[in-house]
Amino acid sequence: MHALTEAAIRRSLVNCSRSEAAALALPRDFAELDWASLDVLGWRDPKAELRGYLVHEQDGEPIGIALRAADTKMSSRRSAMCLLCHSVQSADAISLFTARRVGEAGRNGNTVGTYVCADLDCASRVRVVPPSAQHLDDELQALAVEEQAAGLRQRLRAFTADVTRR
Ligand SMILES: [Zn+2]
What we know:
- There is one protein chain.
- By secondary structure, this protein is α+β, with helices and mostly antiparallel strands.
- It has one domain.
- About 30% of the residues lie in helices and about 25% in strands.
- The chain is built from five helices and seven strands; from the N terminus they run H-H-E-E-E-E-E-E-H-E-H-H.
- The protein has helices at about 5-10, 20-25, 105, 120-125, 140-165, and strands spanning about 40-45, 50-60, 60-70, 80, 90, 95-100, 110-115.
- The strands form two sheets. The chain has a five-stranded antiparallel sheet.
- A hairpin with a 6-residue loop joins strand 1 and strand 2 (about 50-60).
- It starts with 5 loop residues before the first helix and ends with a helix.
- The site of zinc ion (ZN) has 8 residues, from strand 7 and helix 4.
- The site of zinc ion has 8 residues, from strand 7 and helix 4.
């Protein structure tokens, strides 16, 4: 994605109030982000434990979703899959997040929930060559990575459509 300024990130959030957007804390490594390698910028709010954000691009425009993590953790003895990047991890590294829907639905307390990597760092996981492609040559490995990234972008779009549907 294209590099975004702090102001553009705050403006991109579609499902929180202006004061909430103004209060959010950016990721600690914001100044060093490698934007070109990111399909989505996802982070947990360093100052508000249960809050998190996913900002990505749709048709060249940044669109951000504010999320709230469940305050319960799943067991580390089980495994679970992130429904955005499809990585499988120990279940305590996956969290249930809810996003308030936009407009009247959101004001009435309506949310959309999904299971996502607890650190919201799906972007770095889709850049890792999957085990099923590790024996392949570089070109096919790159293709497998691009497929994972495309899947993440597609599922993000679907999730965003759920949150913004009126
Ligand atoms: Zn993920």
